[in-house]
Design goal:
single chain; alpha+beta; DNA Primase, Chain A; five-stranded antiparallel sheet; 15% strand
């Protein structure tokens, strides 16, 4: 007889409010460079991602006017890169 607990997915980690707050403020440029996404520097410290035409990012914030989207580092990973919240947190925090 198989053990049913062996086939259950691992529970999602619990993130504290402080961890989530800090992760939202993670600078996007180094994260995306580490991921191998090419960035184009623009004026006033802004960057564009050729892979996502019209998307502009600066520090930990981004906006995509053509799609009426904007947000922080977590939002970018969820809304643009289409990761789950937990996968986004894992990617950003390196855990």
């Amino acid at each position: 007889m198989t053990n049913p607990s062996r086939h259950k997915p691992a529970p999602a980690p619990r993130w504290s409010r402080e961890q989530i707050r800090a992760t939202r403020l993670t600078p996007l440029v180094p994260l995306l460079q580490k991921r191998g996404l090419p960035l184009v520097a623009r004026e006033a410290g802004n960057f564009e991602l050729p892979a996502f035409p019209g998307l502009i990012l600066k520090d930990c914030y981004w906006r995509w006017p053509q799609r009426d989207l904007a947000g922080n580092a977590i939002d970018f990973h969820v809304q643009v890169l289409e990761l789950s919240f937990h996968d986004a947190m894992r990617h950003i925090t390196g855990t």
